[in-house]
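The protein record filed below.
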Amino acid sequence: MYGIIEQDISILPGIGPAIASRLQKSGVQCVGDILLHLPRDYVDDRISIPMCDLQEGVEARTHGYVQQLDASGYGRRKQVVVTVSDDDGASLQLRFFHSPFLLRDARLAPGRRLSIRGKVEWWHGQAQMLHPDWLPEEAFHAGWQPVYAGQAGLNSARMGKLVSAALNLCGAAAQSPFDTLLAPRPTFAQALKRAHQPDIQGLSGSDMQQAFERLKLEELITYLHVMLRMRRQAQIVAEKWHNDALCSAFLDVLPYSLTDAQEKAWQEIRADLARGQRMHRLLQGDVGSGKTWIAALAMLIAVQNDKQAVLMAPTSVLAVQHVQTLNDLLAPLGKRVSLLTGGMKAAERRALLAGLADGSIDMVVGTHALISEDVVYRNLGLAIVDEQHRFGVRQRWELTGRGEAVHLLAMSATPIPRSMALALYGDMDLSLMRGMPPGRKPVETRLVGNRSKLADGMQRMLDEDGRIYWIVPRIDEDEDGASVEQRVDGLKKRFPDAGILGMHGKMKAADKEKSLIAFADGSCRLLVSTTVVEVGVNVLQARLIVIEQADRYGLAQLHQLRGRVGRDEAQGYCVLLPSSEASNHALERLRHMVGCHDGLELAELDLKLRGAGDAVGARQSGDMGFRLLDVSRDGALIRHWHEHLPEMQPTEAMLHFWRPMAESVD
């Protein structure tokens, strides 16, 4: 089957060069892409309404005969108008833009009876439908009919015809290696037919559910085998690291003992490093849970065993912060980490590269510059990737490829529910850290409607040399004034001495860095920003974050933003400002945020209420690279097959076909 469905869409009847080009630009490349353009809904066509009972704005099916066929308008506005009447004398006009070919369609000859589905509008007292679905009455089959999302300018009816052509082309050849394995479920071919042609198949709701599940299993099992392949590649033989004297010395000089969560994560990592196979682990720790201490321990054990350790961060600002934090922690041991970013002076860069090449530099923190072609490591043994979801899988693997059997520790503060973690990072072992180290207080969170009292509180905080983030939902101007520039202008009038600056994702990296530096050194004490500050900004003086239109964000993302304040022993505050149109349901979500400080609990709630996109943040929203799987709804399916993965391997053709998923992990 996979040989057929991988063929170019141009082999299907009805697809000429122009339509093929439009479909390809929208991501539809092959016959399989057409087959997996599944219906977004089904309509019950067993009921046909008389024309006189049609209601404006309501989609319905009706029947009648062609009374007249005309064309009206001129040029680009020219349209075909089909006037249809029924036996009771009621009439309906069907209007089609840019469709002169209909004037030559014999099926629309006067007197021909039609079955029509569309949404009724009234225009100068006349009922009309714009571009309705229609077919000769004798070709109509009462039952459930699929409704497709438009694609590349093709409406539901046109997409349905392409799907039918693709199904006919595959025919009996539509087989999958998993058909026998997954019996008695429908075969892959049967599942496709049931999904697209329920009216012909005469199916029940449970039949349809089983068909969709069978299609998802084809993708899921293929994906899990990709993850398994990557896990096996990761588990190559490595030296056993037992010498950890530096780690013991480090723990002795820490101001606090490790929390139970930190201790558990560290023991899991240490066991990985001592077992003689390459570590491939994800450390997921809540905002402020103390992941940097664990990173420091891992880097020290690498150095103790005569290896180099690198930590890669997504931005130069975060890299600089890591260097400062690690050097403060390691100073009592006489150890120091270096910094490598793309903006270094040439002489500094040459000296640093020489130190990495000859091994005199054993710990380095940097950005993507760490995987530049001219960077050579003498004996790289550990790669740590911070906020790892900001990097592609290829980038993580490229860093580990700079040495022999390099251990990988990925870290993330983004709370991800377990079913989603299995789907996204099934090639890695998982360590979870919950709770905060001693001395850190939960950020006091409030849902505020009175902005006048908020302004007074902000002024008091500024008078105490505190820093304030103000988060807005957009960059560009809008009627509600909630853009970066609009809010900067408004707040400057109220707080003229706060050195207010704006920041957003469309700014150049150097300009964003300048704004963050100004915020850190106090020349700017109120920073207006979009959610680009969500991850990795560590300004200890930041005491308050105000999040405008908070109901438009997922709880996990709000929790990430909240984590930008209260990063020392001083109390931090988070103010949630709902939009004026916030629903009671949205306000209830925000009230849950006020009383909960556990990122994983909030992520699980988001997953239940709003779906996967909100649970993992904007950068991983949408379908997350999957064609059919929805990790917000298919968690049980993912967990089951993750634990009971069959030994049967997908073919290379299958791996290639499920390419959107495969490319996300390749």
